[in-house]
Amino acid sequence: MIHEYVLGIDGDLWGKMVKMLLTGTYQRSLDEKLRVAIPKPLREALGRPGLLLYVTPGTDGSLAVYTEQALGELAQRLAQASPAAKNAEAFRRLFYAKAQAVELDRQGRLRIPPELAQWGLLDRDVVLIGAGGHLEIWDRGQWETYSEEKQAHYDELAEAAFGGPAAPEAVAAVGKELVTPK
Questions:
Q1: Would you tell me the crossing angle of helices 68-79 and 86-98 to the nearest 10 degrees?
Q2: Which of 11, 62, 130, 143 fits as disulfide partner to 136, beta carbons 3.0 to 4.6 Å?
Q3: Cβ contacts of residue 178 below 8 Å, gap of 6+?
Q4: Are residues 2 and 69 in contact, defined by beta-carbon separation less than 8 angstroms?
Q5: What ranges do the domains of the chain cover?
């Protein structure tokens, strides 16, 4: 759980806003209307029924689900890229053109727009994964292949994500010995 404090214009503390990290892996099935039941821990982190969410193309064949706030934060980051950067502009066009607003229904289900289900090559069996600030939806077979390929390189991926070999404090925190890469 991440706590962010909201300040008023005059600097007074208005209150605490809590952002939940979306974590975990959940096996699910799509129904005939392309609805998927969102597990309770993810539902509680995303918000209440009727909440507006955005389903967008993800990376590596996945779909991404963002809250309005998370999508706004992503939009700010995308806006910082130079308009002259052709790849950034092409990505923005594709991303926003395919993004669609959806609501979480009273049963905690999310209806995936047909165009995005096709984009993600979703079959009946899907996997939902918490990816920190957003949720990802994968076709189960694609996720298993991706996960198997990447799991073999977990340490290298961690080093790249954190900008170098793991810090001793981080290793000690999870109770493992530090192994220095060759």
A1: 160
A2: 62
A3: 166, 168, 171, 172
A4: no
A5: 22-173
Identify the CATH class of 22-173: alpha beta
CA-to-CA dists, residue 163 to 44, 85, 132, 160, angstroms: 32, 25, 19, 5
Cα–Cα nearest to 140, from 116, 124, 119:
124
Interhelix angle for 154-162 vs 140-151, to 10°? 80
Are 122 and 112 in contact by the 8 Å Cβ rule? The answer is: yes
User: pLDDT class for 49, splitting at 50, 70, 90?
Assistant: low
Q: What is the pLDDT of residues 112-163, one digit of tens each?
A: 999 999 999 999 999 999 988 899 999 999 999 999 998 888 888 888 888 8
Let me know how long the chain is: 182
